[in-house]
Amino acid sequence: MEKCNTRSDVQPLAYDTVREDTDLSSQHAILATHQAAQAITGCIARQSKGRKVSKPEFSAPTVKYDTRTMTLFDDETVSLTTTDSRVRVDLVLPEDPDGYQRQYLDGDEWEPTESTLTARGGDFYLHIGFRRYRNDTERSTDTAEDGTVLGVDLGVENIAVTSTARFFPGGELTHHFDRFEGVRGGLQQTGTRSAHRTLKQSSGRQERHSRDVLHQVANGIVKEAIDHDCSTIVFENLTNIRENIPDARWQHRWAFRQLFGYVEYKAEAVGIAVEQVPPENTSKRCSRIGCGFTVDENRPSRGHFRCRKCDHEANADYNAARNIGLRYVRRGRQSSRRTGDGQLALKSGTLTPKRGFTAYATT
Ligand SMILES: [Zn+2]
């Protein structure tokens, strides 16, 4: 049997079952699948050292928390989401004011990360994970309402590019479209009944090939979102795609809609939301925080972005993917529905309009 132990393996397989079998919210269900993935990884590691392993079972009632479901406060209380509502409770800390627990809680150089709540003999024990801040100016102040966003740009050269710099080349799809066009052109000229039948068969085959490719791209995008702990995947609005992606043929426009639909249902199945933002200027705007300069001349060639104001250079589709994600993050800050501020997932860290870049923790 194939190995299946990473978060992005386990989450899609287990998420639905966990939601159906328990009262857990989507975020708690996701964390439960991550906990299972961790246990399986531990087994594989032991097995590779020649030790005996058996199926992992969780005998003690435990719940995993992260910064979306748990908030630590300065008054030594903690707020936790439950299957019911959010509860805020006192932390019972050892008396010693210099104890190591207080050093982590009070120390500016530490921030909470994934934590575990265990129930034992009527008491609750919270094992709080901490990680070191990357530096003082770029510290994260994430709260429960924050979410990490994956921006996705669609196009012809690359069918999709994510803000984490994952590129899905469009060549294979365009090849299928070309072959279909070629077959159609040749057969329509002969105009016979059998030619018509061949045309229908061929178009069915090309469409199946294209759908297979698009399913794989959709899986790749959802995996990218899981691997970067994203709660939302953001696309540009597809309504006026004819104007926004002028080099797209009708087959490409069909492909974008298919792809969006596939990502939507595959993401929903693992508790990740899919949203759209207005596409205006996402390809001409400089995605560097603090710049945002927007002119046509920022695109000297189709694939290349170079800001005329700050000289920021990037692959054009990657620059657009960042803009798409950032547009959603900025809108979130203005909307009353979401009180936190979100962040954009990049390859090596996260980006927010207010605090700039934060590298991923190395642990
Ligand atoms: Zn710029």
Tell me about this structure.
It holds the Pfam family OrfB_IS605. With 363 residues, the chain is an alpha+beta fold. It folds into two domains: 7-132, no CATH class; 148-171 and 215-359, Nucleotidyltransferase, domain 5. 39% of the residues lie in helices and 21% in strands. It contains eight helices and 18 strands. The strands form five sheets. Strands 9, 10, 11, 12, 13, 16, 17 and 18 form an eight-stranded mixed sheet that branches. A three-stranded antiparallel sheet has the order 1-6-7. It is globular and about 90 Å long. The relative contact order is 0.11. It binds zinc ion.
Beta-strand segment tally: 18
How much β-strand is present in the residues? 15-25%
What kind of sheet is the major sheet? 8 strands, mixed
Residue runs with pLDDT of under 50 for 5 or more positions? 135-145, 335-339
CATH C-level label of the largest domain: Alpha Beta
Given the structure, what is the number of helices? 8
- What percent of the residues sit in helical stretches (DSSP H or I)? 25-40%
- What is the level-2 CATH architecture name of the largest domain? 2-Layer Sandwich
Q: What distance lies between the first and last C-alpha atoms, to the nearest angstrom?
A: 29 Å
**What does the radius of gyration come to?**
24 Å
Order of helices and strands: HHEEEEHEEEEEEEHHEHHEEEHEEE
Bound molecules: zinc ion
Secondary-structure-derived class: alpha+beta
According to CATH, the fold-level topology of the largest domain is Nucleotidyltransferase, domain 5
Q: What average pLDDT do the residues reach?
A: 83
Approximate shape: globular
CATH superfamily placement of the largest domain: Ribonuclease H-like superfamily/Ribonuclease H
Total domain count: 2
Region (Disordered): 187-209
Keywords: DNA recombination, DNA-binding, Transposition
Domain Probable transposase IS891/IS1136/IS1341: 136-241
Family: In the C-terminal section; belongs to the transposase 35 family.
